[in-house]
Specification:
Layout: H1 2-5, E1 11-20, E2 44-51, E3 57-64, H2 72-83, E4 90-93, H3 100-108, E5 112-116, H4 124-130, E6 137-141, E7 144-152, E8 158-163, H5 165-184, E9 191-192, H6 193-196, H7 200-203, E10 206-209, E11 212-215, H8 217-224, E12 229-234, H9 241-249, H10 252-264, H11 275-301
Length: 304
């Protein structure tokens, strides 16, 4: 990318997806795991992808299908460290990568990062401050009005929290949709646990007892307090909070890259069985994606 386009690569977008097989046979690479395509009955592999903010690919790594998302980042950093001068880039990733091991590894490798924070898992005193709306200031992020607050976690890390009315409406609508579907299954004020136990989205709104569950109104009220709130944690000290939030919002480009690979390039389902052929299939798709990305970027630069 640097050679072809003579540009500085100072931000890397990182995300992970899963690629399934029409098979249930496991081996050292193909295995069962959390499927992003909801193909839980089939084996899969885990693909980690890195792109620039233009969406052009930098590198990828393939992992066994039972690999947790959060455990992919450390290996990727170790690989990138051998190939690139990582202290000169900012790595942007979603909240699946938010854990102490990943943050510490990036800091020890001199990697700057912007990672989505799991706000509700933070300490009680921080959460109380986050929910205090009087401490927020109005700022513009990607041409949208956001209320922003910032907290110092330690000498290295900053927690930046934003509130968006658009996000709040979406959060509220999503919750109301879940509650509405739950109420359809209520009989005599109770829910059968067997009907909802596999749905993570509803668990935070119910109280379980034996083989039955009830909708918990207090949990719904508590959840509503977080509507519209989103946070990132970062060790970048020389950029404004609004700039770092804008960097995080670029992650949609890597999601677009996954959709393009899965659908247009038919990266999945994978119809190969040996590890060597599976890896070759991914490599061919990746090269095709890279060539198409470079072509699109050149056309964009020439305004064609």
């Amino acid at each position: 990318t640097v050679t072809l386009f003579k540009r500085k690569v100072d931000v890397l977008l990182f995300d992970v997806t899963t690629l399934y097989f029409e098979s249930v046979d496991k081996d050292t690479l193909r295995d069962f795991g959390y499927s992003k395509d909801c193909k839980f009955k089939q084996v899969q592999v885990v693909l980690a992808l890195m792109t620039t903010t233009d969406g052009t690919p930098i590198s990828y790594e393939l992992f066994p299908g039972n690999t947790s998302e959060s455990k992919t980042l450390v290996k990727v950093i170790e690989t990138l460290k051998d190939r690139f001068e990582l202290e000169h880039v900012v790595l942007v990733a979603d909240r699946a990568m938010f854990n102490e091991d990943n943050l510490t590894k990036m800091e020890s490798s001199k990697v700057k990062y912007v990672v989505a924070s799991k706000l509700r898992s933070l300490k009680k005193e921080i959460k109380e401050t986050i929910l205090n709306s009087s401490t927020y200031k109005l700022r513009e992020v990607c041409n949208e009005a956001h209320w922003i607050n910032e907290f110092e976690i330690n000498n290295q890390r900053r927690l930046i929290v934003s509130y968006s009315s658009l996000r709040a409406r979406k959060d509220r609508a999503d919750r109301e949709h879940i509650i509405e579907n739950l109420k359809k299954n209520v009989k005599d004020g109770k829910l059968k646990i067997t009907e909802i136990i596999h749905n993570k989205g509803v668990r935070k709104y119910i109280t379980c007892a034996k083989n039955e569950a009830t909708i918990n109104e207090d949990k719904i009220t508590q959840d509503a307090q977080w509507d519209g709130l989103h946070g990132v944690i970062t060790n970048v000290q020389d950029e404004y909070a609004s700039q770092l939030l804008a960097r995080y919002r670029d992650l949609w480009k890597i999601e677009e890259a996954f959709r393009f690979n899965k659908h247009d390039l038919k990266m999945r389902p994978i119809n190969h069985w040996t590890s060597r052929r599976v890896r070759a299939h991914i490599a061919i798709c990746y090269v095709a994606f890279a060539l198409l990305s470079y072509a699109r970027l050149r056309l964009k630069e020439k305004k064609m």
